[in-house]
Amino acid sequence: MKYKRILLKLSGESLMGDKQFGIDNKRLAVYATQIKEIHDLGVEIAIVIGGGNIFRGVQAEEGGMDRTHGDYMGMLATMINSMALQSSLESAGIKTRLQSAIEMKEIAEPYVRRRAMRHLEKGRVVIFGAGTGNPFFTTDSAASLRAIEINAEVILKGTRVDGIYTADPEKDPTATKYDVITFDDVYANGLNVMDMTAFTLCKENDLPIIVFDMDTPGNLKKLLDGEQVGTIVRN
């Protein structure tokens, strides 16, 4: 296996599948199957998932709502997605633990770093919900922070595109894909990989990011087998 411990970052929007809103159970099942494939190989897996399919703090601000209030609503949206993913993984036969950055003792453990690492060592998939627990930080920032805290070797950012391009491939047919790119080149070319706080955290802690297409079944396993899938960002 190329990596022993990973953090998988999923977007909330990806859970919509073909729907306009909410959660597509078929898409959840596809994700659970892919995660089970690498779990069965002995990979230690932590997951952070966004909440954009339900609610975003930025939306709230545009509608005149207080940003802090909106961000907390967004954190609750990530918990809904995390619970849905947990249920899907457990249906696939994987033991999981859900840890929340905001106390919700009836549905999740509080986030405790040492406990999370122990779960991983025991072969449980750990899902981190509610972002960092602070407003003004995205789930990308939560993914970077948690990955560094648990000593993950890489962040795997599952998206709907198969990597990082010189321009938006949906708008520019001449856009070409990078196989490898440095953090500095991403900065210099103004490419959008993660929000800048999350990205800088990864750069400063020498944590590589791989951006890949999670919607193509088998890609996750190929990545862990060491095949060239997506784009790797590193120092």
Give a short summary of the structure.
Helix 1 (25-39) packs across helix 3. The chain has helices at residues 25-39, 57-62, 67-91, 113-121, 139-149, 183-189, 196-204, 219-224, and strands spanning 5-10, 44-49, 96-100, 109-110, 125-129, 154-159, 164-165, 177-178, 180-182, 209-213, 231-234.
Query: What is the makeup of the main sheet?
Result: 9 strands, mixed
CATH class: Alpha Beta
CATH fold name, please?
Carbamate kinase
CATH level-4 homologous superfamily = Acetylglutamate kinase-like
What coarse outline follows from CA principal-axis ratios?
A: globular
Instruction: List low-pLDDT spans.
Output: none
Strand content: 15-25%
> Whole-number average pLDDT?
94
Q: State the secondary-structure class.
A: alpha/beta
What are the secondary-structure elements, in order, as H or E?
Answer: EHEHHEEHEHEEEEHHEHE
State the CATH architecture: 3-Layer(aba) Sandwich
Number of domains: 1
First-to-last CA distance: 22 Å
Put simply, the count of helices is 8
Strand order of the largest sheet: 4-3-5-2-1-6-10-11-9
Radius of gyration: 17 Å
**Multimeric status of the protein:** single chain
**Total beta-strand segments:** 11
Tell me the helix content: 25-40%
